[in-house]
Design brief:
Elements (H helix, E strand, L loop, with lengths): L4 E7 L2 E9 L39 E6 L2 E5 L1 H7 L6 E9 L8 E9 L4 H14 L1 E9 L2 E10 L2 E7 L21 H14 L11 H14 L21 H39 L1
Parallel strand pairs: 1-5
Antiparallel strand pairs: 1-2, 2-6, 3-4, 5-7, 6-9, 7-8, 8-9
Helix pairs in contact: 3-5
Amino acid sequence: MAAIWKGSVSFGLVNIPVELRTAVRADHISFRLLHEEDLSPVKYQRVKEGEGEPIPWNEIVKGYEYEKGKFVVLTDDDFKTAALEGSRTIDILDFVKDEEIDPRYFETPYYLVPSKGAEKSYALLREAIRSTGSVGIGKIIIRQSQHLAGIRVLGNALVLEIMRFANELVDIDEYTFPARDNVRPKELKMAEQLIGNLAEPFDPSRYTDDYRANLMKLIKGKMKGKKVKFEGPAEESNDTGVLDLMSRLRASLDKDAPKKTARAKRAAPAKTKAKAKTARRKTA
């Protein structure tokens, strides 16, 4: 994929030429709006509110609504005046411990790929960030917009993550959450046991978008003139009263007991091999 930004990362007096390349890709199904009668594509139009008449682009301006129905109009010159100078350098302002950063700040990841000749300095920064468990915090300008950015390590790559500024986060105090003293020790112990039964190494390939898969089945079926049927959703409980957490937890543990047993059987051969290997070493 083509680089979406070219520049350099600087920390102290070290300057590392890099390219910014996408690390994620959208995987959504696109649809067009069509006229039902003849399936001709339908276009959006810019119309004047209350009149429905189309408005040409040269008569449209941008306005900030500071009160209901009251606007401040900004011209192209106003946007140019406010624009930041287009820098091609990501200056790392601070190095922060990874665990100190609220995950809500992170938004979109990109790979930082070293430019030709920058491999040594790139590897130096990567290993320094890795060994210190840090994230480099800086700012980057992409398409005239300034973003907060964090640089962290993933394998042999440096990953730049676009971050949210503090004013973009909703304060947790705006909502009310239950206190810890609402949890009874017995319920907590059973819940912990249930989590233990369901614990698995993270494997992202196990989690798929079922809705997208269903849509594709429908689309392919319609292309072949076939009707696709899906199983209905599981019936939901009609219990609208206070839940008996203990009975629900016990039922959940009973339900997931076979899974725990199967996982133990899968792990047994590996343990047996490890013990045999250890015994051979002692014998030797």
